[in-house]
Amino acid sequence: MKSTLLFLQLALGAASLASDLPVFSRYSRRQDVPTFDWDSIAPSTTLNWVTCYSEATQCTRLSVPLNYSDPGAGSAAIALLRIPSPLGLAGSPAYRGPVLINPGGPGGSGVEYVLSSIGSEIASVIGEEFDVIGFDPRGVANSTPRILSIFNNDVERAEFGLGYNDYDMEVSSLPTLPGRWARMQVFGSLAQGRDNGLLSHVTTDNVARDMMSIVKAHGREKLQYWGFSYGTVLGATFAALFPDNIERAILDGVLYFDGYYAADRINDIVDADKVLQTFFDGCAAAGPDLCAFHSPQPSAIKQRLDALYERVLRQPVPAYSPSLPQYGVLDYALLKSTVFAMLYAPYLAFPILAQGLKLLEDGDASLLYQLAMPRGGEVIAVVDCADGTPVSDSPATLAEYAKQASMKSSFGSQVAAVRLLCSGWKIHPNSFKGPITANTSYPLLIIGNTLDPITPLAAAKEAVKAFPGSVLLTQDSPGHASVTTPSECTYRHVRNYFLNGTLPIVGTICNVTTPLFPPRSANGNDSTSVAAEYVKRRMFIV
């Protein structure tokens, strides 16, 4: 298996993927995926697999209690898609059962994630002994009942106008914060008033219980799991609730669990500027043929980016791409969040970012606007804000929080925005919020990159302490979670862990040799085609 090929398939699909643009992403259905009538499968407490989408995949719907404390209060139907193990289909004794995958979010569709080519590449990593199973968390995508949009339709959403600038927590935007805080109170009231009875039951602890139901429906007692970013919160919550039911669990790109449940993400951002520095360093070293935003010195590239920030802050830039078609305005908040998003998968995104910045410098915002993430915070609010400690911050308190975040990182506004969004949220069920710690029936494998823009290595080290016996595998690379970088070393350890339970030696570091700005001949793609691939896969950046 070629590591470069594997990387290209996984880079923007998984944890880059994997959690968290903390606010600005929302689940959006890909337009190019094949269709399947999920209503043709009757929900059941048994797994009745049927061929779906293609001959290579199978689907089912599992009926679970909507409220595990009151099983008679209704049910939810969890959509599952699997790439079946050929050994399992053949009845071989070498079959090792299902591995559940969560791509992050919250709100990421595990069904569409595994359905994409990424799923088959994950299957090649873990081996033919295992099924690869993607599931849509309760309320999301193909699972029912679905989280009804807080807005009835896109027209109403547009009229309300909840967009990037509403979440903007840059210090320069703080004078307008009181008005935006008021809008978030309206947003929270609107959600509460339109709740269809589901919103208090889509918390992370309930999704973890659904995972236990999936395991038992397979006739097994212990979970095998690979979760990215927010998926590490989900996996760790499962481990805390069901410590005796862990067979294998990988937490890859780890959040601070206590911070997540406290609605305080400020420490997650501490390494983002260091990842951006690798863009400056790599671009300077690559030369003008490979990096369109090249200057001989990294400091000069940084100065040019800062100048673009200042220019767009003073005067937003119109963007129009008739071939897509796509159009809009690239303003400061959108530019900043787009640069931040590109830090998730540097080995694929940095050449595209360089071209977009050069075009913007020349007055053309179309490429960067094309790369921008969808606007919205509905799914994040439903899960993050309900999971977290209620936020009652005043505008003045939020402003002080934003200033503290800006001292952590120039991208501090990205996580401060979560606090603003949750300040108006009013649905706070009495759900499990920790402590997230346990002595598990089998040690966890924790994976962290040396430079991750939203899940720092320090958080992975904290996770090791929370789960005694677990081992940290460090991948020496920038980017969000291991799958955004080609590393045969990392994938070998993943394979060995799933297959025979072998954990890396404590202190193991997997190196990466791929350059950040590779020659075009290395992957056969020019920046335009890679940009198109990025846009196609960006639904997984959640």
TrEMBL record:
<dbReference type="InterPro" id="IPR013595">
    <property type="entry name" value="Pept_S33_TAP-like_C"/>
</dbReference>
<keyword id="KW-0378">Hydrolase</keyword>
<dbReference type="GO" id="GO:0016787">
    <property type="term" value="F:hydrolase activity"/>
</dbReference>
<comment type="similarity">
    <text>Belongs to the peptidase S33 family.</text>
</comment>
<dbReference type="InterPro" id="IPR051601">
    <property type="entry name" value="Serine_prot/Carboxylest_S33"/>
</dbReference>
<dbReference type="Pfam" id="PF08386">
    <property type="entry name" value="Abhydrolase_4"/>
</dbReference>
<keyword id="KW-0732">Signal</keyword>
<feature type="signal peptide">
    <location>
        <begin position="1"/>
        <end position="18"/>
    </location>
</feature>
<feature type="domain" description="Peptidase S33 tripeptidyl aminopeptidase-like C-terminal">
    <location>
        <begin position="411"/>
        <end position="510"/>
    </location>
</feature>
<dbReference type="InterPro" id="IPR029058">
    <property type="entry name" value="AB_hydrolase_fold"/>
</dbReference>
<protein>
    <recommendedName>
        <fullName>Peptidase S33 tripeptidyl aminopeptidase-like C-terminal domain-containing protein</fullName>
    </recommendedName>
</protein>
